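Re: weekly structure request thread

Next one in the queue (199 aa):
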Amino acid sequence: MPKRPSSRPPASSGRLRIVAGRLRGSRLDVPHSPGLRPTGDRVRETLFNWLAPVVEGMRCLDLFAGTGALGIEALSRGAAHCTFVERDRMLAQGLEANLARLDAGDARVVNADAAAWLRAAQGPFDLVFLDPPFEARLWNTAASGLEAAGCLAAHAWLYVESPAEEPLALPPTWRIHREGQAGGVRHALYRRAAPDPLS
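Done, posted below.
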């Protein structure tokens, strides 16, 4: 008699590795969670090649953290601190466990909705990872929230990951620095410019 398929989701749907730095080669389990779409190794490697001259000593914010791979990669490469914000309690607990297991550095995990957390956010953050669940379509709202919170350093770096065809309406002070595409996903690094006092 054939086995009936299990209705229970697997505890893990894969693994990621930290690409470079102090934690190079460390593995992160990717838990099974609807909508979770971690940034892959190759895209992270490209991003941190762009950031290599500046990432050391940065204060980072991983706003829709998920597995925390982006923020942990930054810590591995010398970032001074990373705050991870994740709404899903299971993912937040898994992230805390990974940070402790890896002794990743100065990090804080906040189990909260990103929009609610931004209303009381304190910075300044030098580097922000903005990679919300695609189906939630929160790029523009989150970007506006970051600006309204006043938690960005004057010349902060901002990484945005989105569907390639998604129209974005980001703040005018966010100037594109580098961008690329992997499959149907666009990954872009912006640099924040000081607002024009005459505008």
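The two ends are 74 Å apart (CA to CA). Residues 12-192 form a domain with the Rossmann fold fold (CATH 3.40.50.150).
Next request, please.
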